[in-house]
């Protein structure tokens, strides 16, 4: 699977987009959410989206390599590979926690009424 297909897995319009590059996907994603790509926020969001698409592609390639090689590794190599992937999982969790904090701050700033909030329960 190529990088573009790996990125499309994360794209909101993955089954209908006509984009032919990861850059186009990121730009289309900003448009999908009505984010100005020339704003400071839009520029940073696009960079983060590109990084996430690249990470998805790299992890997909790592999965293929693991599937092809895990049976050929000695016990020490298996432990090393496992520990490296576990460490990456924790790092991704830290990034996600940071994003969740920002999401919570933005949500709280919407200033919705108690009635609106209760209706969502």
Write the layout of secondary structure elements.
Layout (H helix, E strand, L loop, with lengths): L2 H6 L13 H11 L7 H30 L5 H35 L4 H6 L2
Helix pairs in contact: 2-3
What does this 3D model show about the protein?
With 121 residues, the protein is an all-alpha fold. The chain folds into two domains: 1-72, no CATH class; 74-121. It is 73% helix and 0% strand. The protein contains five helices and no strands. It has helices spanning 3-8, 22-32, 40-69, 75-109, 114-119. Helix 2 packs across helix 3 (40-69). The longest helix is centred in the C-terminal third of the chain and has 35 residues, at 75-109. The N and C termini lie far apart (40 Å). 7% of the residues are buried. The model has no long low-confidence stretch (mean pLDDT 86).
Compact overview of the structure:
With about 120 residues, the chain is mainly alpha-helical.
SSE arrangement, N to C: HHHHH
Total helical segments = 5
Overall SS class: mainly alpha
Rg value: 19 Å
Report the mean per-residue pLDDT as an integer. Answer: 86
Task: Pick out its properties.
121 residues; mainly alpha; extended
